Amino acid sequence: MDPFPNLIAIHWFSFAEQKYYSIMIDVPPDLQDQMRVPAPNRTQDGEIRHLPRSDLILGLAPGGEVVVWMMSQRTNAVEVMRVQAIEVEGNLNAFKERTKNYLERSGAYLEKHGVPLEGW
Predict the structure, then answer these.
(1) Is 112 in a helix, a strand, or coil?
(2) One Pfam family name from the record (predicted)?
(3) pLDDT in tens, 73-104
């Protein structure tokens, strides 16, 4: 990533909660150096190579929690931070059709178990 970001802006809609969230994340100044440290990577042949972690993954969880990982493979993921977004106003009708499709697939689970706010 060149130039490497110093801020990440995220604005999203949670289908499960019917809420909008927003956050500006300050990227740690040493994160690029941390990502350059070689980490084990398994090839399709089973060989282990040591390569930098080249990906930042952002997980958006219910309740507005954002989890940031650095990795080059799932097996070498390192959690960088957890931050809390704020709920913001937004037009719920903008996602009316997608919400309907989401609830057809997941509504029974949500009714039975509620929105999982822990374990992310």
Answers:
(1) helix
(2) DUF2931
(3) 999 999 999 999 999 999 999 999 999 999 99
